[in-house]
């Protein structure tokens, strides 16, 4: 049985108190909400904070307000199950509810939060193992070692961003609010992620994610498709978030196509958007966008399935997403 290491548990009731506790504790502290990512990592000794600061008692982090006409603000501690069940989210931002419903199992969706999924630790076959296994094969660069076993000659870690909601938020154009004792700022979701398996977030030390801001819908059509081995509870080995703004004549006025599960950060396929913008959403242009996504997808052998097959699947999954948008 894997056991948690010893740590001090704090449960503040105000955001200001939580950020102060973090500032006082320094780099040996971590925030926790549902704990579905942090606590298993602690059991595997991948993360060993001396102080764990719960944010579940911060009332503001559980609020949901607004709608698709004015924009919506979702507290970072709103559970994934609440996201799935919220009628306004389901009506005005159905892709968010659908992506949340694809995450893990009902039990874990009752515990896991939207903020936790957006801040999910990067994953890798050589990293997500127990301590004894990692010690037996020699530790990797992400924890306790100095080499990336997926790409031994690489100077950086290639652990994969496996959040389902991250590519969706980038496609939507969402922002997140980050609060600390010295700052309070809104950051574009696209700018939150860094293409490095270790330093995978552009997040300052001590910052707490408190809110996710969704922009007004303004007619955008957004779809998320997920590839995984089993039909339930698996992490994505490929995620496709497609967002299109279609004119009355069917011409694509603007587009975003984001790939998840293939790199340490969500991948914005700008070439696919370029192909689509100003053109009708027909078979020719959808195929060209799918080809652009295939060329941009460069998965490595660090998750489930063969990496070359995962790359090949970028084409049909992009086509499925665009076809669903076309028929909405």
How would you describe this protein?
With 328 residues, this protein is of the alpha+beta class. 33% of the residues lie in helices and 20% in strands. It has helices spanning 15-25, 38-43, 80-85, 87-92, 94-101, 106-111, 114-118, 131-137, 165-172, 189-192, 270-276, 283-296, 307-312, 314-326, and strands at residues 8-10, 29-32, 51-54, 64-67, 71-75, 175-179, 184-188, 208-214, 221-227, 238-246, 252-260, 267-268. The chain has a five-stranded antiparallel β-sheet with strand order 4-5-8-6-7. It has a four-stranded antiparallel β-sheet with strand order 9-10-11-12, sandwiched between helices. It starts with 7 loop residues before the first strand and ends with a helix. The mean pLDDT is 97.
**Helical amount:** 25-40%
Largest sheet: 5 strands, antiparallel
The residue-averaged pLDDT reads 97
SSE topology string = EHEHEEEHHHHHHHEEHEEEEEHHHH
Distance between the termini: 49 Å
Label the structural class: alpha+beta
Nearest-angstrom radius of gyration?
A: 20 Å
Q: Give a count of the beta strands, DSSP E runs of length 2 or more.
A: 12
Strand % is 15-25%
Q: Uncertain regions: pLDDT < 50 for 5+ in a row? A: none
Name the overall outline.
globular
Describe the secondary-structure layout.
Layout: E1 8-10, H1 15-25, E2 29-32, H2 38-43, E3 51-54, E4 64-67, E5 71-75, H3 80-85, H4 87-92, H5 94-101, H6 106-111, H7 114-118, H8 131-137, H9 165-172, E6 175-179, E7 184-188, H10 189-192, E8 208-214, E9 221-227, E10 238-246, E11 252-260, E12 267-268, H11 270-276, H12 283-296, H13 307-312, H14 314-326
Parallel strand pairs: 1-3, 2-3
Antiparallel strand pairs: 4-5, 5-8, 6-7, 6-8, 9-10, 10-11, 11-12
Helix pairs in contact: 11-12, 12-14
